[in-house]
Amino acid sequence: MDANPVTPPLLEIDNATVLRGNCTALDRLSLRIEAGQHTAILGANGSGKSTLVQLIARQLYPLAPSDGRSPVRVFGRDRWNVAELRGLLGIVSPALQRDYTTDTPLEVFDAVVSSFFAARGLWLDHEITEAMRERANAALVQLEVSHLIGREMASLSTGEARRVLIARALAHRPRALLLDEPCAGLDLASRRHFLETLRALARSGTTLLLVTHHVEEIIPEIERVLLLKNGLALREGGKAATLTGEALGEAFAMPIRVTQHGDWYHATVQ
Ligand SMILES: Nc1ncnc2c1ncn2[C@@H]1O[C@H](COP(=O)(O)OP(=O)(O)OP(=O)(O)O)[C@@H](O)[C@H]1O
Known about the structure:
binds adenosine-5'-triphosphate; three-stranded antiparallel β-sheet; alpha/beta; 9 helices
């Protein structure tokens, strides 16, 4: 066995172009995120954030490069069984939340524990072990939503459902979590409380990839930012270099003033 194994990067994207309809949604994007490197992906509406999430989630594919090498590698591999990948990289997106809160009724604990079968709910052939039960319960406790067991997913508030879906992703003890607009639809107090939960997750060793429109949601634990604009990586690096009025002004095509309060950043339109 290798006594000093090198951890592969969480994500390597090398010159990836993704077309959607007539639009180049990602344009020769290159990005490398090391394991443990909490990162925010920030950009205006239409900048390519959701496309990037779907590229990482294997729901969209890049144009094939001329050398035949896949431009996307997750944990060092370019081929993944999607269920296996979800165990290492949990993904919670608005599309997933829509899927879990509409259509067929689904109880909260079933929604979480069914993740072990890569299913949306439980079926007769699913045998839940005690270990699965414990991990599902522990994840619900960690996200402070165990009191919701017994409720239907469709009956939960936006914030409650999101916490349950993060618990579902966490039940696998993934190495990383990709959260697409996790604060959307939360009121001011819920957002702050939710961000504290994310801080605790980041500190507990789960690498966070946070996709957002809002500078205010970049928790102090996140040190690196990718700014997207029109499918291009406009700027990438530490917060001091990326969260500037100049860079954000360019990303959002507006004059923007950035202020810093402790380890938090705020942006206002001038
Ligand atoms: N199904 C589609 N067909 C054609 N164009 C699309 C499709 N989905 C997205 N696009 C285009 O791709 C570009 C990137 O869209 P994407 O949804 O990735 O942006 P985003 O940064 O996630 O935006 P938002 O913040 O509004 O969710 C946009 O110009 C969008 O119009």
